[in-house]
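Hello forum,

I keep getting stuck at the same step: I have a sequence, I want structure tokens, and every attempt I make locally crashes halfway through. Rather than fight my setup again tonight, could one of you with a working pipeline run this one for me? It's a single chain of 307 residues.
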Amino acid sequence: IIGAGAMGSLFGGRLALAGEEVWLVDVWEEHVRAIREKGLTIVTPAQDIVCRPRATTRAEDIGSADLVIVFVKSTATKTAARTAASLLGPGAAVLTLQNGYGNADELAAVVGRERVIVGTTAQGATLLGPGRIMHGGSGDTHIGELGGGLTPRLAKIAATLTRAGFPTVGDEGVASLVWGKLIINVGINALTGITGLKNGELADYAETREVLALAVGEAVAVARAAGVKLPYPDPVDKVLAVAAATCQNRSSMLQDLASGRLTEIDAINGAVVREGARLGVATPVNRTLTLLIKALEQIRQAKKAPA
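Reply #2:
Ran it on my machine without issues. Output:
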């Protein structure tokens, strides 16, 4: 697993508990060291679970893999693609479970379209500190071949993830998967980043519900202009349902801003703006959200910088 943040660690930890041989690859040395020395702790409402995936900052320590799952931020996808290429054994696949639009194509440009599987997941997780995460919400995971069709390896990967506690199904409609997850992120991430609210709290205020609906509506219009059929009938209801299912989760964008890191706004709301411009669909709400997040990035990074 390339990218051992909250979600990468969640999937890696659960897969290790299910008996899979798992390596986590991440540049955060303190996190890697904590996992090596004490294991990875997954905090849940019922109990704290300690699991022991292998962890390293050096991909060359691993050798070859049957499956590489990419969980890095979209800003690091090109680098992750090169790392993935160095790990692939014969017939191995690369699964992207990242947020945002365009990650699969960036991976395919390096490893080949035939190796890439696209996935979306409604699981939620928050990084609490080195070697410690919170499982903040559960939901289904969908995966599909970038080239289309249902294949034996798709079924095998879905079964493996399901055994690890992530109910997963194979899907033929990759574009539908990508846009379906993108629209969920469009409705949740920027708003939580700006307001500081947890996912579930977005529904508590008429104002945030209205902005959510406006941003989602624009994204739906862009998807329809692109000829994409979404995987759910009512996009706003779906986004609110995911927010409720991950109610205690602090979105990745909120976590990034709090830590003074760059966000994935360009691959989420920013992607809606770009695709809208290409297809002739107006996206003023998503443009405003994108600009506000970019302003917050600069403000937080300025505060983080030494005087």
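DSSP finds eleven helices and eleven strands in the chain. If your local run keeps crashing, start a new thread with the error log.
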